[in-house]
Amino acid sequence: MDGFNRDRRNFIKLCTVAGITVFAAPALWQRGNARQSEIASDKLNWRGTGPAPAFRADGVAKVTGQKIFGRDFRARDMPGWKQQQHYALVLRCNRVGRRFSGIDWSQLPPDAQPYMKVTAETLAEKKLHLPPFYGEAMLLPEGASPHYYGHAVAMLLFDDFDKYAIAKQALQFNEQVIRYGEQTPPVERDPYASWRIIRVEGPQGPGGEDLYSPMQDGLFFPSYRDHKAEWPRAANQSGSVSERGIYYAQQIRGQTQRESDSGNWHLVRGEYRTQIVDPMTMEPEAANVWFDDARKTLHLVLTTQSPQDFQEFAAHMLAESAFATAIENIVVHSSVVGGGFGGKDHTIFPYYGLVAGLFGSAPVRLANNRFEQFQSGFKRHPFHMRNTLAVDKKSGKFQALISEMQVDGGGRQNFSASVSMVGASAIQSIYYLPRNDISAVANQSMNVDSGSMRGYGTLQTMSAMEMMVNQAAQELGIDPIELRLRNAFQNGWRNTQGAVPKVGVRYRELLERAKEHPMWRERVARKQAFERENPGYLFGTGYAIATKDYGTGAAAPSAAVQFDTAGRLSLAVEFMEMGTGIATSQSMLLENILGRAADHCAVGEVDAWHALQQVQTESPYTMSQQYQDQNSTNPLWTPVTAMASAASMSSYFQSHATTQAAEILFQQGLLPAARRLWKTDEVDGAQVQWRDGKLHYRDFSPLALPQLAAEAHRGGGVTGVMVHCFNRWDWTEADFILDGRKWTWGIDGLALRRGGSAENVIADEYQVEKRAAVRYPETALNNAMVTYYAPTAALVEVAVNSGTGDVSIHGLQNYMDCGRAIVRPLVEGQIEGGVAMGIGHALYEYLPPLAEGAGNGTWNLNRYQVSLAKHVPVWNQQHDILPPATENDPHKGIGEVVMIPIVAALVEAIYQATGKRFNEVPVTPEKLRRALNPQVL
Amino acid sequence: MHQFVFAILLLAIGANAAAQSEVEKGRYLAAAGDCVACHTAANGRPFIGGRPFHTPFGTLFSTNITPDKKTGIGNYTLEDFTAAMRRGEGAHGNLYPAMPYTSYYLIPDEDIASLYTYFMQLPAVEYAAPGNDLFFPANLRYGLKLWNWVFFDKAPISQPEGKSPQWLRGNYLVNGLGHCGECHTPRNFAFAMKREEKLSGNILEGWDAVDIRPASLRRQGWDREQLRLLFTTGASERGTALGEMFSVVKHSLSRLSESDINAIITYLLDDSAENNESVAGKLGSPQVAAEQHTQGRADFVAYCAGCHGREGRGVTLSFAPPMDRSAAVRGDSAYNMIAVILRGLPAQRMDRINARAGMPAFHLELDDARVAGLVNFMRTAWGDAEEPVTREEVEEIRRQLREEDYLGAVK
Amino acid sequence: MAKIPVSMVVNGEKIGPLEVEEYTSMLDFLHEHLNLTGTKLGCGIGVCRACTIVVERDDGSLEPVRSCINNVGRFNGETVTTVEGQAEHDSAGEIVALSPIQQAFLRNFSFQCGWCTAGFVNAATALIDQLKREPVPADTIEGVIDEALGEHICRCTGYVRYFRAVREVIESTPGLLLKEAK
What we know:
heterotrimer, A: nine-stranded mixed β-sheet
């Protein structure tokens, strides 16, 4: 058996947390991939020969069924692991409101006995507790009442697959297994978080100083009574932040009422609701965990989107447990994620895998089937909003937005605080609002917990805003696109938080384009023609636009780029591959800067970054400016070392890091080599350019990358650059002194490789370069909440069957500003995927709450309907991707945003077709059938 | 149910409300009579007709029963309506007995009146269903008079002594308004219900509309709760609603009040009589079945157990029903077992919460002998069948299904 | 727990006889016994089609079958192809050439996460085989693809690029479409 640590290249020390050293193994699948790339013929080379890549870098592995996903790996696939594979299953409550009074073990068939039963008692004995992020009661103790539907009570370990499979079928839907005692009151707790965003524009207008805004004045919070939020009542124009806030909130409400009463403002008022949605990632969660007690090492293969935080949480969890002395090392093996959509970000699942592994006598595999995934995997937060939009009747300009949001966070907290905050700050959509009072409360409930799923609050709130705008247009008799043009946000203006967005917005351009489309221009005639030719069908056209604010306000991407002596480029990035094609797009980014795409790209890299030697200390969200200033003097300090992967963030944040690393490598590695080869002291960087794979400069003979690389290696120059960046709604800048010269880059950590021979990026070959000075974005920007936007719009035509309520999408035109698209077919694939998911959210996907809901364990895809091909305009979907405004446009993330406008556009198209307005999604065929045929019982 | 309660509440409120309640009552009765199922084409608007019915005499199309004067029943008086409902006498001559006037004649005047009020206030839709496509002599409507004279037995509804009001209500709903017999009663050469074999089962559209007489239901293990589940959700441990019965559950039974569902169940199980043991008949023996039908068992394990569970115990009802408690397995007739195996089942959706996946068809892969063996294994293991199914019986059912084009529709 | 002897040909390789617990699903058999994990579990109840594999019928035609709802016994004695067997391999087991469907999926960027890819590869391959035997009129091609792949669930890419890729292969492979003579 191969031992842990025998090969330094396989296991790289990351950091030490509470006495436990965390290691990371290189992404499992990349071993296989590397093997294949050596034999790959031209046809199997993803880069191809054209300007665009021939296919995805991970394409061959995926289309041939290679082991690449976390769920694929068994003990026998893991070098050095004990070969036997054990299996675990989790027992979960399908009800609440009664005490859990034990387990009837006699329900286990005699030929399917577990060798270990883990209960709350076992956990208590071993002092194992969930990381605080997830709350308490990892397994429900006997005598307690389940906190929510699907609360786990026990975990069983089996030493062979057949026993496990037999036991699972005997127990999974067996009502006799978990016993319940007397009734209990429901479990109730205080809300997870509350937010209030009040802003009143100042006398200098949209871009001037505000009378009040969170950005300028700060945030204030409610108190909780009977588990409900109570906002402060005291109002005072010159009082505390809350007193001033309440004063302005009252002003907004009072003025809205008065102006409406006097007939000046038109109000669109309504309750808007969104449903519980399952991320339905195609790969259900799984973990394979081996506790190698001889070597005091815990190995984990996971399906998570966020291995970095897992490592840290897990180390703390173990350090505080009775296993603290038995485990010295944690090794996390990362892998390709089979569908993320935020649904595998900070899920609780890996901790159950970890516990199973701790009690196993061989590697233990815990793998949800789909029923279990529905029962235990987190959901999209349902929003219930009471909204009022005030529009000036004469000008059609929006005057005020008042919104009260109740958000269901489910039984465990997870990201509810942040989702409700992002949702609240996103409701403004693409519009400028001179006054707003938006509150959001994330509540605890007994539903399955809600998490960071795609949309992240914005889908829910922005769809509602778009529905209101469409309704306002209808009621005021203004063309919906015209109304939007009158209210579109402009560069330099302030958003509802009082912040000025950093990325240029091109809303007008998007709006103008749709206005000219025949689907829009001829919508009345098209409706008449269609309904004439198709009796029984109702035809309608809808438009909506959305702009996705993305980012977390503490983004910390890393990247490393290096070349070998033959000029082959290796890239390592921190983001995971969740299907978006990040390896492909990030590799392509190098082409403009270094003359060719990366030959190899390691995604989800976790091990290399320790070369940067950075440390983080406190939450980047709550630290004071003074604290940040003090710590910044330590050249290795950073607000955040690592970040979770989210598809729509990769292109913007990761691209920044990758581009920075590539540019530094060009300046520090290739240019000096070029100077030597050209025998000239100075090269004007502005006049150097890549053409046909060679570097051209004035009359000097062009140089190919292999020549330059060989020279850099020969001369002991820089051959690899590793960077770490930090973004708090603005990029950090730092100064570095290299060879006596000062350089300023948009990074806060740097390590350089000189010489070196490793094929892939490894920490050992890099030397940290301490920065001379750093300028972090001010901590006050934390109040800004979100300021990055990528807009998208949808124009959709539907035909509604007036008998069945079935909606078919007749035509669909998307509009998108993604800045500079890196790989167009990847962007289009993202758009089409977002459309399908948006259609599901708008028309089909639904989970009821509580007892009938997913937590009861009986849900699967026979009932939960996601979009199938027949629900999607497979053959008639058009995309209009705006060409970048400038060469320096950023690469913007689009994963989530596309699904937003389609929701409101569909709801509006249905209204235009049927005259029925829905403020609640999904607008299912059943609902429509009922609305259109009220005469039928 | 709520609408019904609502309707009754409204009765107390006054004249205007009474008119409203007449409509509400008619609306409820129309659901109980499942008018929408026949008078709506696939993917069509409710009540405008156009649904084809394939009979041995050719194809009939249901008519528009919205109050459109040109194409619907807009010109009908209450008398015209009554004549159509009770006697099959339409404005243009006799209706074909696909219209269940052979059951509806039992509907009392007050219910007819409510239905009339309801239909006459529907939005009128101009739509003419396609013309019927019948063979001679069935294409001649005047023959229907003769048919009615020979076959239309207008026996009054039975009112046996000692039956509870619930049973009597159930009797009316099952035999009158609900016209269950139209499918569940065998028909003679002229397509008329055989009165003497009422509700004893009938092969229709490639399914056995099973024997629903009390003794048969009880022998198959049906009890009040399982029937209630079937009628309200379309699925129970005894089995799921197949073919047209799913539509009946979706559009009619699931809309009925709790008390009417109870009445139907009381009638079907004859609950007021003394034969109220829940399961009659002996249950089978998996062990004997495994010994007698080795290949059948192997095929069950290989083909069926993935969904219907180890030892036929099921996985979870929301996915697929168990076989060890299945009424079809316990029933006298193996027709539906054979038909399901051969033709499979389409996916069914009641609403957002209640839906089931389809079942694959096995007609390509399993030959007659193996289907017989599989059916015999199940019936021996979990039923009480005396006679094994023969290869020839499967062959015959396969032939019928193929002829009627029921094989190959479901993958 | 009873075991049955299982033999079959998987991706051209003769397997067995192996003693396998009789209720083992084909999917679990591939995963746990043969360590072929390219076939994916999506729903486990036969709805999403991610687990689709290909079985060769007696007449040599190919049938897509869901491996999650069928137990291993159904495949005893059969010839089965999983996604791992769709490309051409050399004697060392390395990939030499991809199938036309695999190439088309790559070329069209048909998938993102790749979890549903195996099912699409196998079902589309069976469709091509079916069209070789029974060509269809060219103007029905969209309906034929909808029918063959319409139940497969993809959560990332919205079907457009899968369907387009299959169409490309059908249109570029001689003999799959009937062209009406003008």
